Amino acid sequence: MKISRTEVEHVARLARLALDPAELDALTGDMDAILAYVDQLKRLDTSAIVPTAHAVPMANAFRPDEVRPSFTPEQAQQNAPAPDPAGFRVPRVIE
Amino acid sequence: MNYEVVIGLEVHVQLTTRTKIFCGCSTAFGQPPNSQTCPVCLGLPGALPVLNYQAVEYAIRTGLATNCSIAPQSVFARKNYFYPDLPKGYQISQFELPTCRHGWLDIEGEWGVKRIGITRIHMEEDAGKLVHGEAPGSSQSSFVDLNRAGTPLLEVVSEPDLRSADEAVAYLKKLHQIVVYLGVCDGNMEEGSFRCDANVSLRPVGQQEFGTRAEIKNVNSFRFVKQAIEYEIERQADVLDAGGKVVQETRLFDAQTGMTRSMRGKEEAHDYRYFPDPDLVPLEIDAAWIEAERAQLPELPDARRQRYQAELGLSAYDAEVLTAERAMAEYFEAGVALLPTQPKAVANWVMGDLTRKLNDSGQTLAESPVTPELLTGMLRLIEAGTISGKIAKTVFDEMWATGHEAARIVEEKGLVQVSDTGAIEAIVDEVLAAGAAQVEQYRGGNEKVFGFFVGQVMKASKGKANPALVNELLKRKLSGE
Description:
The structure holds 2 protein chains of 2 kinds.
Chain A: H1 5-14, H2 21-39, E1 62-63, H3 73-76, E2 88-91
Chain B: E1 3-14, H1 39-42, E2 51-52, H2 53-65, E3 69-70, E4 73-74, E5 76-80, E6 90-94, E7 100-109, E8 112-125, E9 129-132, E10 141-145, E11 152-158, H3 165-182, E12 194-204, E13 214-219, H4 222-241, E14 249-254, E15 259-262, E16 275-276, E17 283-284, H5 287-296, H6 301-312, H7 316-323, H8 326-338, H9 343-361, H10 372-383, H11 389-402, H12 406-413, H13 421-434, H14 436-443, H15 449-460, H16 467-478
Parallel strand pairs in B: 13-14
Antiparallel strand pairs in B: 1-11, 1-12, 3-7, 4-17, 5-6, 5-16, 7-8, 8-11, 9-10, 12-13, 14-15
Helix pairs in contact in B: 2-5, 3-4, 6-7, 8-9, 8-10, 10-11, 13-15, 13-16, 15-16
């Protein structure tokens, strides 16, 4: 097994997904198969390959430090379920 | 049991760029909620971040000023977690490949000079701000303001080299001074431009391994850092002495009570699943770029302090005071450039009357009506003997009030020093005649009354008598000539 049911549960919780036991079983099977498939790459010899951080062979895309127009507060909250002049209204967050 | 405290600091330095790190929204403080937002910093689908060049320059300069090596390649990663102030569900930060590594700062104190290692400095974006509703009917709500989301930060991570709250404060002050000198940060701790998390652990004296640490979050003044660490040392010692174990956790400092308290809830999973952000290409910094940034560095406080002592002959104390802030050091140096023969006089006036006036009026050096030109103009009049040091105080106050040149003030107010021997002699004679009793005392061996005569003469001349001449004449006359 490439991945355990417990690990799938953990990842689901990190992603805030509520899964019932049947879904967990199904996903564990699917993810195990996906990881086994990706594992085929291990058969290649990559010892001479430089690790890469990006698929595009490019570096250094910059913008100058110049202010561009922003949204108005109303535009920013146009799709929000509970817009408010004080900000996006969300359930109270207690620290 | 006797414990040794081990402290490492993570400092968030907010950069003074005009715009955010990955979009063109303004970073100005105190604007209406969500008025500085766009698709990029709101995390709207399809929006793409583009790195602010100025932020990279500031990161390189900060790295160089803290003796870091600058990485030829650094990579932005996604740090994944859910919180309402983080619209994308991840924070863009640098993880495995930060821009600056392996630096250090020297701190001075009762421990002598101690070198504190800097593990890394990485670039990242700030999150938004949560406001917990106080308005009627909003007790069940919090409000999210994303103006701050995407503001560029440097996170400066120290090695666990600090061994007391005082060392931690000295390190913080040093770092604060450097980033403000560089102009990469405004240093405003109240507005959160420079904030600190402290990792604190205890171990029995002599033990090599570190104990379990607690992380104290977001302490926003030097005084609170000291309080928070001292409280945490006591708390952990009590836990250990009682046979308990320190829990690895995040704690919040409460400035009201001076205590730290556990922040459960954020504990849940320190599982951020970092991976390189595919929306951003790697950052590559070559030697030429590093040298170009090095050329932009101002002379830093330590170097300046040493130069003031070695080249200008100032005391360690004077050098320390004058270099504490870059604006003051630059003002002082502008004065010395105009009057190279008198660095000590310039220093005294800058640290004395000028600082007093600035403090009284709450003005900054940039706003000072007395410029280095005006100040040195006045010092030249003292040097030439036109005015005495005492009169200069009056002239200085007048310059502050009017912004006029010293020479003009001296002329208009008739403050020219009297160096006419005859005129001073007449006053001296008067004073001696009126103080026959003190003359007897002086001649009887009480030399302290000499100061009394000087004071009387200066008073009678309205402070305009040349003090050297006054002294000379008094001595001669009192010794019986």
